Amino acid sequence: ALTDANAAIFDAAHGFAGVIPGVHEVLRRQGLLEGIWCLDPDETLSPGQSEELDRVIAAYPFLRDDDFVAAHRDRWLSG
């Protein structure tokens, strides 16, 4: 489960080309980032990476920390 999720987040299928946008996308979905922008505007999610993230999030809900993040997000973002 964890290896599968890490492969989607870090974009192993595309030689880790989408590693930073993949992490940003997870944080965006949790409300911690407004977008997945990178310093290099060409650095984006790889084709199919968003769907892979959808798949692993649905397949392994026990790996998600969304409730913990939601409980603390406002305090973290206000300071």
Give the helices and strands, then pairings.
Blueprint: H1 2-10, H2 19-29, H3 49-59, H4 66-78
Q: Please, what is the average pLDDT?
A: 97
- Strand tally is 0
Radius of gyration over C-alpha positions, nearest whole angstrom: 13 Å
SSE ordering: HHHH
Uncertain runs with pLDDT below 50, 5 residues or more? Answer: none
User: Strand count, sense and closure of the main sheet?
Assistant: none
Helix content: 55-70%
Strand content is under 5%
Please give the alpha-carbon distance between the first and last residues. 34 Å
Task: Supply the number of structural domains.
Answer: 1
Overall 3D shape: flat
Discrete helix count:
4
Structural class: mainly alpha
In short:
The chain has 79 residues and is mostly helical. The protein has one domain (2-78). The protein is 56% helix and 0% strand.
Structural commentary:
The protein is 56% helix and 0% strand. It has 79 residues and is mainly α. The protein is flat.
